[in-house]
């Protein structure tokens, strides 16, 4: 099989605060996904501080990596350390010029802001002028906040697309960037991308690796870039065909799904959360939670999806034994006999939640999240789960989950979601 | 004031899955923070795919950026695309050799895992051998999972520290990396860092910028790198002195805290969550939650801290009106008259939670998280909060919060935490 290569793109995210570890970048992953879907191969995502030399070096690194496109985010604000426009202009070999229309446009936005907040004066005028300076020959993109974006062609490439740092502004401006003539022209030459994905639960990464090695001995896999990503208990496998390899990628996708059908959650990118929501809606079921160690994390995850009020009745965070007894009717003797962390109590939490909220399905979770409270019989990570329905279905598990307190709580939430999914949408094989 | 420069370090995070946007890197920010605290200036954080050429280019980019240290994460797994050890060996100009002790050590770990999961066989043996290959002259760091880390000196620099990708393994292995002789030697020459921080609530970033401009006209601020970071409703200000500027940084830190005392949450890096936990423990109070739109997110955040069972009684996720009425005693007529999203219902949720759980302080949250359900009077983002205590204290708010569904829910959780903190630890000025 022959497969071409995709044109490469780089993402540069600026902001010294990203290098102190006090904040996690959200723009890099978002832009990387967008660029991948447009058909680019993302060469790298580079986070640099607000230092002109470092930004310049980052732009040159993208050139050396063979990128035809660089998207930057950040450094467009009104303060002195916001230097992106200037560095990009110099990188493109042009000077900054005042865009009078843009200045007036920003002035209008700032006036409204000044009236609302009571701030204003010469500092604002200076910010206005600074933000309206545009590299000669660049396309300015109208501000979503107050900072305009820029599309800056450089002789010999790459095309530089300059976006603001606040994620809301960046995402809001992205459609306009795609419509800018130089970007549109570049995109016309990019082969379409069709990424395929598989989601497994409870399958070790080494099993996929071993299957791929086996397939590799029978056929040429080089036309498809396969990446696996373990997200706690779920394994995501992403297949990205190079140009010309779409049909083969679809075959490989089907073969992997068939080989590991027992652990397959979805083969079209659908998340567990979405599958569960659809299954509950289809059945017309409502769900109620009785949580101890997860402390509301499962309820919060269920509520995360818009429209969840149609199937989430509610939940109780029964962290203390009194709460378990008084709010969810877990018998005090049961707690005394079996312990608060026990399969019996998990089931009583599920039944109690279901009954108190008048729900169709209930889930109970109680476990030792740590770091303290573990015993030899019930060590840190030991968590009891139960899902029960009004129809008499009972699904119970009591694994020992690895990791620290937050790992155990997050994995417990995952497992709770998967047990609910199994109750609401039983797989054919079962 | 004179201030030197800090030695530079770079972080390289490998993993093609980071460039498809399907996962957000957690290792880069964590390592950046650690390196900053050790006294390095972090030049950049670079995310690259599992392609040997790109990783090699990333290592060379760090050399060109003047870095004396590079920390990599990822690419140590058993699959064919895990190539970090090999690329780093070639970068350092040495060959890979099998470390027999390490192989046995990993084999022992894998045996236990194979017994527990039922997976095993030749795939496992191959993984074992691959993971025990070490660049000649490097220090191997014992695995936390199954992958060992590496400390690899390169003639002429930089020192390369190779860490595994899973965040839990990376963090668990970090102390051993710091103890490896070549890293210890390097650290001996790094001037100590004393980063100072300030945490504000409800203070716009532009106010700090304006204060800094004012200070800048009176004194030379160049010895201190000040970064501000807006995390939803909280503003974190980080002051990082260059060598020799520690005293001045402390003065600036004090001046900023004094100027914005009204919005100050902490001046020593203590988080809101920690302050609240301390205040509740000091008073011997327990807290109960009655949540609608946040759906358990506040309860989960309270439970997140180890030892929280001492002060978290529990909570109810009262997502439906029936749940509000039946589980927390919110009068049905009140919901009919004022609506489920109203200051009245927020108070009834707080009182109901406090009473049902026998807690000392209760918090009620009800709001329109969106995207649907907004009206002109109660638009998306309108959220009602109330905190009440047995002693008769009532704190109520009903702001309109910006952003989409998850923004509104997260900001609501923040505001709930701050209202609880205000109830448990009233500030002197109030």
UniProtKB/TrEMBL annotation, chains A, B:
Pfam families: CinA (PF02464), MoCF_biosynth (PF00994). Gene3D superfamilies: CinA-like (3.90.950.20), MoaB/Mog-like domain (3.40.980.10). SMART domains: MoCF_biosynth. Coiled coil: none annotated. Residues 10-185 form the MoaB/Mog domain. Signal peptide: none annotated. InterPro entries: CinA, CinA-like_C, CinA_C, Competence-induced_CinA, MoaB/Mog-like_dom_sf, MoaB/Mog_dom. NCBIfam families: cinA_nterm, PncC_domain, PRK00549.1. Belongs to the CinA family. This is CinA-like protein.
